[in-house]
Amino acid sequence: MPEQLLYAVEVTLNGLMAGVLYSLVALGFVLIFKASGIFNYAQGVMALFAALTLVGIMNGQVPFAHLINAIFGTEVHHFGWHVPAVLAIVLTMVVMVGFAWVVNHFVLRHLVNQEPIILFMATIGLAYFLEGFGDLMWGSDIKKLEVGLPQGGSFWIEENTQWLGFGNENFYGFFLDRLDLVATVIAAILVIGLVAFSQYTKQGRALRAVADDHQAALSVGISLNFIWVLVWSLAGFVALVAGIMWGAKSGVQFSLSLIALKALPVLMLGGFTSIPGAIVGGLIIGVGEKLFEFSIGPLVGGATENWFAYVLALVFLVFRPQGLFGEKIIERV
Amino acid sequence: MKDNVESYVTEDGRTIGGLLMEMKSITLRFGGVVAIKDISFDIREGEIRAIIGPNGAGKSSMLNVISGFYRPQEGEVWFRGKPRPSMKPYQVARQGIARTFQNIALFEGMTVLDNVMTGRLTHMKAGLASQALWRGAAEREETENREKVEKIIDFLEIQAIRKTPVGRLPYGLKKRVELARALAAEPMLLLLDEPMAGMNVEEKEDMSRFILDVNDEFGTTIALIEHDMGVVMDLSDRVVVMDYGRKIGDGTPDEVRGNQDVIDAYLGVSHD
Fold first, then answer.
1. ipTM of this model?
2. pTM
3. Which end of chain B has fewer CB atoms at under 10 Å, N or C?
């Protein structure tokens, strides 16, 4: 195979992997949007908060240490223990469920039947609150997240794909990050799990019912509050998974919350209401921006990854506003 | 009127039991507008009870009070001999009161079968864990519920559209699916908000037949709102007539037909 083509294949594969991470974030948006029509601006910050909490619990950090020290003049920072990763993930999930309950109880419950824009504004407020709260609770320094996920390139794949070069000396096999591979597998499991949940369990059926018609859902005995807490908990879980993946890749820091912005074009491509759409949209954006950078990038001076996704989303907005898998919106006059 | 008897048998042989639901001096206001003014009436077990009246009389509001969507400012709702505390609509539904809506509220994106299955949600007890493992109790429960739902689908003659997304169905069939979903809950009391609105004569006859059959076969108590006087008089055992938020008549169809206030409300009367 010619060298260029091999490179292109490798770029595509890596694009797919990067796309999976975009998909993970987009998935959180879709879950909440489907069930309640709320565009949750705080999804990215939720991922950051989940990752911060996970690291904090694992390292035995004292929450609100700075605040406590400032008020009482103490010098506490750590409990002095380390929590195993699995237990810490479970505990973090408990925190995220608690967060879902708090959001529903103190914010959403009071905004039932409000315009979508009001709810959207509320989630912007929520994002800033959670960002500050996370900082206050766990500190704002960059943290390393080590939950035992493999790092670095996969030698196995490199060795076993070397023959594709057919004796080409410059080709050493495909380079794939093992973390990305794990992320892909986990994302696949997550999506299958979510689809199975929504199709085959009674809570899933209730969730789809609420997504479709609030009034009708109430009339068959579904508690909207319960469903909303459930959905925000699920979104919290997806945020945690995304937080772990991104955190393991590039450290837990504020910029983690900005990945949410990359989820926007993904959603415009996939449609705001489709779980498979979020996945496919993420993959297209991932592959698209890597391939574009690889092929066109050098001609225009590079750094196309920063804007490619948004331009693609813009094109979609013009020609197919409902996205690839979204429901077509027909307004009757 | 047969207000004071414990139970009685109708001309066509159905047994009407004791009081299932009592509305006691209900008043409902929206700001300064009085939608329902001091209305009392009752619904007996096994009967078909109609609420009729001209547009804006407060019929739908009354139904919404019964199903918990509106909370009256004054008055009490009694259910099965006990005063009902203030409840959310989903809690009312779990008590065994199912309803349909005037403007149809179905899950448009879901199939007919899935829609009707949501009616069974209140009867499903299996926890998330056992469902995740998909074994034993959860599976049996799903099968049982599925059987009941299929029976209702057969009963309402909508087998042919079981797998069709509801959004694609014509109006008349949607009404029938909504009835199926309400029936799937095996309610003690079934509330129908204008089940025949917007239907042609043939569809109305079908729907009337279904309502009578439901009452007859399942013994379901039914309270319905309807505009079409002819239909109401044929279907119902007793009728409440409302006008401008007040009750102006209550009794058997014959009694109501002869009531001067009712005639005035429907035909209009000169106010001089």
1. 0.85
2. 0.82
3. C
